[in-house]
Fold this sequence. Notes:
Blueprint: H1 2-9, H2 11-28, H3 33-59, H4 71-93, H5 98-111, H6 118-124, H7 129-154, H8 162-190, H9 192-200, H10 204-225, H11 231-258, H12 262-270, H13 274-283, H14 291-314
Helix pairs in contact: 2-3, 2-10, 2-14, 3-8, 3-10, 4-5, 4-7, 5-11, 5-13, 5-14, 6-7, 6-12, 7-8, 7-12, 8-9, 10-14, 11-12, 11-14, 13-14
Amino acid sequence: MNVLSFIKRWSLVVALCFGTAVYVLFSRVPALVPVGEWAEPWLVDALPVLLFALLFVTFCKIDVRDMRLRAWHVWLQVIRLVLCGLLVFAVVSSGTGHSRLVWTGVFVCVSCPTAAAAAVVTEKLGGSIASMTIYTIMDNLVTAIAVPLFLPMVERGVGVSFVEASLMVLRNVAVVLVAPLVLALVCRKVVPKFAAWIAGIHDLAFYMWCVNLAIVTGVTVRNILHATVSGLTLGLLLLLPLVVTLVLFSIGKAVGHAFGDNVSAGQAMGQKNTVVGIWLALTFLDPLAALAPGAYVIWQNLVNAWQIWYKEKYGVVKW
């Protein structure tokens, strides 16, 4: 029972460790390598399906009357765009070499939109699912417009049009975020008993997110272990995202506190869809910069794990 209690209390940390251990085991033990190579594409392909399912479960709990634009939504967007602009300046000013790579990695972390699964952790911490959902949609739409404008400044050789880059981001929003939201709202209207039953299963979406996180962590560890950069550059790409994580969560909570919603605003600003960031780095920027959003996955979930532990132990969110 003590083991089960520990796993429940530290589910996100367990997911991070489990994903790391499984990847190392199936990539380093010769007898298991063929199994790992066979299973990896299946697990990666399962990520969007798992995300769709866990968001559907979460959105079944939404009260439509709470889905409205709030002042902190706008303020966080302004702050995020200003930070992105400053980081673009830092990238351009850094010239070439490892310094530019590191700043590019930091830019990717900040420019990532809010994670679709942020609503799951927000609910766990006692925040508003509806408010988070509206912000997440808004944040992804702003990303679809702003990031294609920043990309040519960060990487002058980007050979993609504004419309093409925007449509790529919007497609991700429509499939992963909007579709499960619409399906959940339809179910609440057409088959309310089924929606209520789904919503009533305690922490279902949260544990589905833990499975998703374990797979993402395995992919992240693989990218880190195969990185071809110097030790100092690798260290900066892995440690600076910790600073970025703490800064973004702090900004979100400070703005949210002013409007009485520090939990939702903190998750909105701090919990990032790093899959989009990794895709941006691999597709348009320096592929090595993808290490930064990969590390961000680990840091943001350690922050979330600590917050959830504190909330369940003391009944309040400490930070």
